[in-house]
């Protein structure tokens, strides 16, 4: 889902 | 975490440390655009809203704190430090950077992955980061003098997003459902903006001459 993955990058 | 992303984060870290080192040791911010630094501070502020609510890892939290701390201290140095601020050349740093923010905000409201405040703010930070370097590049064209540390700072800053592009390619092929067009397009645009600077940086490095940007 969109929320999780992209937020683990700085 | 993959090697490209680690290299990207380390290059990004190196860029802010080079800048802090320059300003702190020689007490000068000659050739540095305050506006670009203010935009980066806003980028980190709007991107790391979930700093205390969404724990990813120790590394992630520490790096976020370093980027927030360094970007705000650089802005403080150039604005407030009694010695450094005298070397700030505001007549050359004339880019209307707040005009840059509105298109990013409007775009983030219409093009995002989820219409929530946090996601729109995060998307805004992605768009803003892509163009935050513009005031600095304009200032360089104007002043034409690039001291080594400033040149290294901009080179590292451009290289970090290039490493991130490799990271996105790697993750696209190794993780299913890893698709983030918004970040990818903005990241490519951001790296392209450094394109001609890279060209002249390598020319000067290859010919071992002082870095000169054409008028």
UniProtKB/TrEMBL annotation, chain B:
Compartments it resides in: Endoplasmic reticulum membrane
PROSITE patterns reported for this sequence: ER_LUMEN_RECEPTOR_1
Q: Which residues cross the membrane?
A: 55-78, 98-115, 121-140, 152-170, 182-202
Primary residence: endoplasmic reticulum
One molecular function GO term is:
ER retention sequence binding
**What topology does the record note for this protein and the membrane?**
Multi-pass membrane protein
What's an example GO cellular component term for this entry? endoplasmic reticulum membrane
A Gene Ontology BP annotation from the UniProt entry: vesicle-mediated transport
List the protein's name: ER lumen protein retaining receptor
Protein species of origin: Trema orientale (Charcoal tree)
Q: What is the lineage of its organism?
A: Eukaryota, Viridiplantae, Streptophyta, Embryophyta, Tracheophyta
